[in-house]
Amino acid sequence: MRGGRAVGTWQRLAAGVVVAVGCGETTEPPPPGPATIAVASAIDSLVAVGRTAQLAATALDESGDPLTGVTFTWTTSNDAVISVSTAGLATANGPGAVTVTATADGDVTGTIRLRAVPADLAAVATLSGDPFGGAVVNALSTGARGAAQTAWGQCASGTAAGNVVDVVECLDDLGSQAAAAADPVDKTLLAVLALFADQIRQRLGL
Predict the structure, then answer these.
(1) Which of 48, 83, 111, 162 has the maximal Cβ count within 10 Å?
(2) Is 45 within 8 Å of 57 (Cβ atoms)?
(3) What average pLDDT values come out for the chain (206 residues) when binned by 10 residues?
(4) What number of other Cβ atoms are within 10 A of residue 178's Cβ?
(5) Most distant CA pair in the chain: distance in Å?
(6) Whole-angstrom Cα distance, residue 63 to residue 200?
(7) Which of 85, 117, 149 is the last residue of a domain?
(8) Strand, coil or helix: what is 195?
(9) How are strands ordered across the β-sheet holding 52-60?
(10) Given this model, what pLDDT does residue 165 score?
(11) Residue 197 contacts by C-beta under 8 Å, 6 or more apart in sequence?
């Protein structure tokens, strides 16, 4: 009898251990899904027809912190204007405006508005790289030269990168400098640059 009681006691203890271990197990909760998606373009919102713009999507949690390992599906509202690859590379096919959408987890979306413009970037590159324009910039007074060099350089670099927005900003900057110049010689030289700027603007197709 004593042996039977001992066996029964050990069986009950063993069962208790198994139950205790089972109750102590925990299951890791699934990682949080994205709450929002932010979409950005490497060259801003204007894309020259025939050129591309790499888009990037970032999934954010409810606290606004970025999430990793998220897969996105890309779609566009009009492929004839701007199409987009599975990797988020947007190609401008014809003039117009579209909304590009990045989707994750089936229903969480982020969008960006893009506009394709018939910009003649080859002509813009010729104008912004004209040696005469550079000579005019270098002829400005020390006080005016630095800002003009920055703006003129932005026109060239923006054109090389296909960044139409950068080119527009440089043209606006040069116009503001010409209007604000107090020195008569600087004002005349900046007015010459403004003529270059007008020719460039005409070739952007805005």
Answers:
(1) 48
(2) no
(3) 47 44 60 88 96 97 92 97 97 98 93 97 93 93 93 93 94 92 94 92 92
(4) 21
(5) 119
(6) 44
(7) 117
(8) helix
(9) 36-41, 52-60, 89-92, 82-84
(10) 95
(11) 171, 174, 175
> pLDDT tens, 89-131?
999 999 999 999 999 988 899 999 999 999 999 999 999 999 9
State how far the Cα of 191 lies from the Cα of 40, in Å rounded to an integer: 36
Q: Look up residue 163 and give its two tokens.
A: 């960044």
Q: Which residue carries 């109750």 as its tokens?
A: 23
CA atoms lying within 13 Å on the CB side of residue 196? 30
Domain that holds residue 79: 36-117
Tokens describing residue 153: 């350089």
CB 46 within 8 A of CB 165: yes
The helix or strand, by DSSP H or E, that contains position 39, with its residue range, turns out to be strand 36-41
Residue 47 has phi, psi (to 5 degrees) of -125, 130
| In a shared domain, residues 90 and 52 | yes
